[in-house]
């Protein structure tokens, strides 16, 4: 298939859309998450059954990317496009495949779990009435086979590139993106149009456009989902960006730990080159553009654009002082635009539908949608895409179905290790870049980790700081030494050797690091500490003044005792790995606090709730 | 274009592209710096912006700005002395000190340490944020440079010296986060790397992480050993720098005082590397003339500088045929002292100790090269740096600036003006030209100042009419410049007869063993001027006219390039590769 004009593209879409196909389609979620949950086994069984039942001509199987329903993987969807009926099955195992096929479109099959589609699985780029979610970034993810260029084209793929190259001037593309108000989804929220304009204004004949696919926030996986589920959308957007700024070479900087995403990107690049959608004279417009892939070695700091560029150049992955900004002096010293995966994934939709449409979604200051990776103690862990301006309450309590095990919501961390925790009092705040910043957190790449009453906030702060500590490049003093000292102080607090002075010093140091660190990683690293301190200072104080961890998490501060409820069954003493529990049979047992290692075995085995943790 | 801004409320106008630090300097406002390192004379600036000591407040900017690397903008309002800036700076310094050993009293950098000076200047008298300190094995693997990474503050100045200026590429940041440190790849000991021991990293290091390997004690031991005859040689560049260690102004020529001090310390004879420099000119110029006459293996490269020689052996092993086979002056001195002079005074070579005082750390390594010993007896036994000699003079209780000037001993202390300029870039070539011109023209030329090859530029070119020959020469200092030139030679883009190369930018005046200049270009310029003054002041300014050299050839060596000369004064090179 050679596509050298918009007409060729339309023909290709038509061909795919009108080709004869079996009435029933089965979509199987084959993202990394699905595969990890066992989708591959289910898929194998599905193929086996279809073969043995001679259903090859009656059923078409689509291996698709992540459907966003992490909590329900493996996920499988049966779809009859003629009458619009469908069933989404969650937590499928191989033994259920037979029943699902038996029921077919007259399901649901007995003994399976189905998922209500309208509630959790939106279809539209514009949110429909009554639907909380929309699908701009994830428009194809979980819907089409990511290894099929035909399916991408059939769903409108590359029509934005065709439109840009054949009907728009470069400046018009930039103006469009600027008018749409698209902001960088990697975390900073910098206006994408302005970034492109800076680079476009540079006179240098050689420029680069880079896709930052070095996703690294703990608990964030939206970029992976897009790359695994809809790789062409990124390629198309990079070509549009290249055209806008005058770059003929794109680079995707992707972490090597995303092998499936790499494989699908490589496949997509190969397909696009074969069709002429990458390469020379795309759509006969005279514009040349190609893309290469560069691997990151898993350094979080390489998500920072100057560090990323150094890494591509084969240098140590560490940031340098800006200015000069990459738009002026980037890769190999040439003007360079770095955008992240999610930002690119919005571009084609904006080009197709216009800036007014994009602005109609989200808030005035932050138009469009945002993908969040909903994780932690939320009941339905998953990938959600919502219009900007939605409240955390809607995301966590409606889309996420509340907190697991009926525990109480305590806080939610947005922005990963650079963000802060948000408490119940801000659950009704419409979230966008500015509002999150105003309450001491940030958008970040969209990780959203929910915490419940069993989480110790000091320990959470320590967890995030430990991440930063591991990921600091070590270049500037505040981050290299300062974060180490912060961590040591948190360790003191969580182990009961801290004092009020420790808390005071922690505050001072947090502010200095924010004020003086070289790059975004360092400047935001104290956020988890500052925000937990602002919202849960009482927990910090309890740790140092009462030697008590209110959530009962910090092992060194927990004391296990046995109450009068003890019947002397000796289950605890037999389970204790260090023989710290003594007592005659049928007599109340006692824990020797000097021997106790606080492993919690006694607490868990006691059937009489006689072991108490405090 | 000029940019207007205010600093602490005072208006200032500076060139666009200037930094806040540069604008502040214009107002005589001092902003403390640590990782920043600048050498105007070589157009070198290490603007890492990483220590964050220089942070200042800029109106409208959410966080503090590093003054060293933030360009000024029109209407900018900077505050260097706000409480916020002061507190941040103090905290940063506190953090640096919290991860730094507090053994200042016994540190080799005591009183020369910029971190120590900063703590003093900022009045930081205790460390608030105490915690774990990073530790690494000490590296004493080489003869030249000692590394104590516990003291490394990650300013990365050494990295710029090693990679950008010298393009040796041994030192770089390794590890991440708190464990990050500057070291050779895989934390290899320096001796196992391509390090050429130029010591530019040591000059750049603001703290005691990089220092010379210290051989003061072996010298004291030799001086107190009655069975040994201990002779000392002093390199040309030492005499114009050592005074700085005693508070004399940069550029003071302290030759006489230094000789007096060495005599007081108990050296049996105080000789001069300059004598051997004259000898080098005799041998090297003979070779130059020969190779030019035969039009063979051109260009000829100088071989006085051991850092440069090792660089060539590692980086350009295919060009090891190019340098003159003449040993360096230090090694020629050792060879002559332990043969000609030892015979003359009836001392067995093994009972003679030759001590060198060098501006250089690579000389410590050079003396240990196996080519430079005879039956297991090294030609040069101990090499100390200018700094170590200054320390020893202080230790001996000698009041340096009060000393009556003394004279070098004869014959190995007799030298010419041609020899003393070996200490600065261009000097060796100028000395060779003086002799070559006389030899080729068969006369005693009076115009002997070859100013085209003078100055601190990294690469200098000159075409000199010598008799009928248009001699095309180049002078190069700093190994990065040497690399550029050698690449051009390899590509056939340039065509010279002779090239002088010195590893250190500016030559030996900027050697790794010299008193620390902390990036002050003026100090280097003054040292350079002092050497040319010393040349002018000497009665004889051509090596071949040195009577002691003539005598040496008459009594011992025969002709330059003779068999004896070759055995004692020439060497070979090793193709080391990477």
The proportion of residues forming helix of chain B, as a percent range, comes to 25-40%
Strand order of the largest sheet of chain A: 2-1-3-4-5
Radius of gyration of chain A: 27 Å
- Strand count, sense and closure of the main sheet of chain B? 5 strands, mixed
Instruction: Give the overall form of chain B.
Output: globular
| Count, helices of chain B | 18
Helix segment count of chain A?
Answer: 24
Question: Which blocks of ≥5 consecutive residues of chain A have pLDDT under 50?
Answer: none
Per CATH, the architecture of the largest domain in chain B is: 3-Layer(aba) Sandwich
Number of separate strands of chain A: 19
Question: Which strand-content bin applies to the residues of chain B?
Answer: 15-25%
Q: What's the mean pLDDT score of chain B?
A: 96
Overall number of structural domains of chain B = 3
Pairing-aware structural class of the strands and helices of chain B? alpha/beta
Class of the largest domain in chain A in CATH? Alpha Beta
CATH class of the largest domain in chain B: Alpha Beta
Total of domains of chain A? 5
Structural class of chain A: alpha/beta
């Amino acid at each position: 298939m050679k596509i050298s004009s918009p007409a060729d593209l339309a023909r290709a879409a038509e061909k795919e859309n009108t080709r004869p196909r079996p009435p029933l389609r089965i979509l199987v979620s084959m993202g990394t998450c699905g595969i990890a949950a066992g989708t591959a086994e289910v898929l194998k069984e599905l193929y086996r059954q279809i073969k043995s039942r001679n259903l090859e001509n009656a059923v078409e199987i689509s291996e698709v990317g992540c459907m966003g329903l992490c909590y329900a993987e493996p996920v499988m969807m049966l779809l009859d496009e003629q009458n619009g009926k469908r069933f989404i099955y969650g937590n499928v195992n191989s033994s259920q495949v037979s029943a699902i096929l038996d029921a077919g479109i007259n399901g649901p099959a007995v003994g399976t779990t189905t998922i209500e589609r309208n509630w959790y699985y939106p279809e539209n780029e514009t949110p429909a009435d009554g639907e909380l979610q929309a699908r701009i970034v994830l428009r194809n993810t979980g819907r089409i086979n990511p290894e099929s260029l035909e399916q991408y084209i059939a769903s409108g793929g590359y029509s934005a590139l065709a439109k840009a190259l054949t009907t728009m001037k470069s400046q018009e593309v930039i103006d469009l993106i600027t008018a749409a108000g698209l902001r960088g989804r990697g975390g900073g929220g910098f206006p994408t149009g302005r970034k492109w304009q800076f680079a476009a204004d540079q006179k240098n004949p050689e420029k680069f456009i880079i896709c930052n696919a070095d996703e690294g926030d703990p608990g964030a996986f939206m970029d992976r989902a897009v790359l695994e589920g809809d790789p062409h959308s990124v390629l198309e957007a990079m070509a549009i960006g290249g055209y806008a700024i005058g770059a003929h070479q794109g680079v995707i900087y992707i972490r090597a730990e995303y092998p499936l995403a790499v494989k699908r990107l490589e496949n997509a690049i190969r397909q696009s080159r074969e069709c002429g959608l990458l390469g020379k004279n795309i759509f006969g417009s005279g514009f040349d553009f190609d893309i290469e892939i560069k691997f990151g070695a898993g350094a979080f700091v390489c998500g920072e654009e100057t560090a990323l560029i150094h890494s591509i150049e084969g240098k140590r992955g560490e940031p340098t002082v800006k200015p000069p900004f990459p738009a002026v002096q980037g890769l190999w010293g040439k003007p360079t635009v770095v955008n992240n995966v999610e930002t690119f994934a919005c571009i084609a939709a904006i080009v197709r539908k216009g800036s007014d449409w994009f602005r109609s979604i989200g808030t005035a200051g932050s138009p469009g949608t945002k993908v969040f990776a909903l994780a932690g103690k939320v009941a339905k862990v998953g990938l959600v895409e919502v219009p900007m301006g939605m409240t955390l309450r809607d995301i966590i309590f409606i889309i996420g179905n509340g907190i697991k095990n009926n525990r109480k919501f305590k806080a939610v961390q947005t922005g990963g290790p650079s963000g802060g925790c948000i408490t119940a009092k801000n659950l009704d705040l419409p979230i966008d870049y500015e509002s999150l910043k105003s309450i001491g957190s940030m958008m970040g790449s969209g990780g959203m980790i929910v915490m419940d009453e069993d989480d110790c906030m000091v320990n959470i702060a320590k967890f995030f700081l430990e991440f930063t500590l591991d990921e600091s490049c070590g270049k500037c003093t505040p981050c290299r030494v300062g974060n180490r000292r912060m961590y040591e102080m948190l360790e003191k607090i969580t182990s009961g050797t801290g004092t009020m002075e420790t808390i005071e010093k922690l505050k001072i140091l947090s502010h200095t690091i924010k004020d003086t660190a070289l790059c975004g990683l360092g400047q935001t690293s104290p956020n988890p500490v500052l925000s937990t301190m602002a919202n849960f200072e009482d927990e910090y104080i309890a740790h140092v003044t009462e030697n008590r961890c209110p959530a009962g998490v910090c092992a060194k501060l927990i004391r296990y005792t046995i109450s009068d409820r003890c019947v002397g069954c000796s289950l605890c003493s037999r389970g204790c790995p260090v023989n710290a529990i003594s007592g005659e049979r049928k007599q109340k047992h006692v824990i020797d606090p000097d021997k106790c290692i606080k492993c919690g075995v006694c607490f868990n085995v006691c059937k009489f709730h006689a072991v108490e943790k405090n | 274009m000029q940019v207007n801004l205010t600093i602490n409320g005072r208006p200032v106008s500076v060139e666009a592209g200037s930094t806040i630090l540069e604008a502040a300097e214009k107002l005589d406002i001092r902003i403390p710096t640590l990782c920043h390192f600048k050498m105007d004379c070589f157009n070198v600036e290490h603007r890492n912006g990483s220590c964050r000591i220089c942070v200042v407040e800029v109106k409208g900017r959410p966080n503090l700005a590093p003054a060293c690397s933030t360009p000024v903008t029109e209407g900018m309002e900077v505050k260097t002395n706000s409480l916020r800036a002061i507190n941040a700076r103090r905290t940063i310094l506190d953090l640096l000190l919290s991860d730094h050993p507090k053994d200042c009293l016994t540190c080799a950098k005591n009183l020369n340490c910029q971190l120590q000076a900063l703590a003093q200047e900022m009045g930081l008298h205790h460390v608030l944020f105490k915690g774990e300190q990073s530790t690494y094995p000490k590296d004493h693997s080489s003869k030249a440079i000692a590394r104590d990474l516990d003291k490394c503050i990650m300013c990365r100045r050494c990295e710029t010296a090693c990679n950008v200026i010298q393009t040796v590429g041994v030192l770089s940041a390794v590890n991440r986060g708190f464990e990050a440190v500057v070291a050779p790849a895989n934390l290899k000991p320096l001796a196992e790397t391509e390090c050429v021991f130029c010591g530019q990293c040591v000059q750049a290091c603001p703290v005691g992480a990089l220092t010379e390997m210290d051989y003061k004690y072996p010298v004291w031991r030799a001086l107190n050993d009655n069975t040994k005859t201990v002779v000392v040689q002093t390199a040309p560049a030492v005499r114009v720098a050592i005074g700085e260690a005693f508070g004399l102004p940069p550029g003071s020529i302290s030759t006489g005082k230094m000789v007096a001090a060495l005599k007081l310390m108990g050296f049996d004879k105080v000789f001069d590397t300059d004598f051997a420099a004259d000898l080098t000119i005799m041998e090297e110029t003979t070779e130059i003339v020969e190779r030019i006459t035969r039009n063979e293996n051109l260009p000829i490269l100088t071989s006085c500088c051991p850092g440069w020689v090792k660089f060539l052996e590692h980086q350009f092993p295919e060009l090891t045929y190019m340098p003159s086979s003449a040993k360096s002056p230090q090694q020629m001195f050792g060879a002559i002292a332990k043969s000609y002079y030892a015979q003359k005074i009836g001392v067995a070579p093994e009972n003679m100790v030759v001590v060198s005082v060098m501006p250089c750390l690579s000389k410590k390594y050079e003396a240990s090269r196996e080519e430079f010993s005879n039956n297991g007896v090294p030609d040069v036994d101990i090499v100390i740096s200018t700094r170590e000699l200054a320390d020893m003079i202080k230790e001996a209780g000698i009041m340096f600036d009060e000393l009556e000037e003394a004279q070098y001993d004869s014959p190995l202390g007799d030298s010419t003006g041609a020899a003393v300029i070996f200490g600065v870039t261009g000097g060796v070539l100028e000395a060779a030209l003086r002799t070559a011109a006389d030899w080729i023209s068969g006369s005693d030329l009076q115009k002997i100042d070859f100013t085209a090859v003078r100055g601190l530029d990294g690469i200098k070119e000159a075409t000199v009419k010598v008799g009928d020959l248009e001699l095309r020469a180049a002078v190069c200092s700093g190994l990065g410049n040497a690399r550029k030139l050698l690449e051009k030679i390899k590509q056939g883009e340039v065509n010279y007869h002779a090239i002088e190369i010195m590893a250190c930018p500016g030559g030996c005046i900027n050697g790794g063993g010299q008193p620390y200049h902390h990036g002050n270009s003026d100090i280097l310029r003054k040292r350079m001027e002092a050497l040319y003054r010393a040349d002018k002041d000497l009665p004889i300014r051509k090596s071949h006219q040195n009577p002691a050299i003539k005598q040496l050839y008459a009594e011992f060596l025969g002709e330059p390039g003779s068999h004896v000369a070759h055995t004692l004064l020439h060497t070979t090179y090793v193709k080391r590769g990477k």
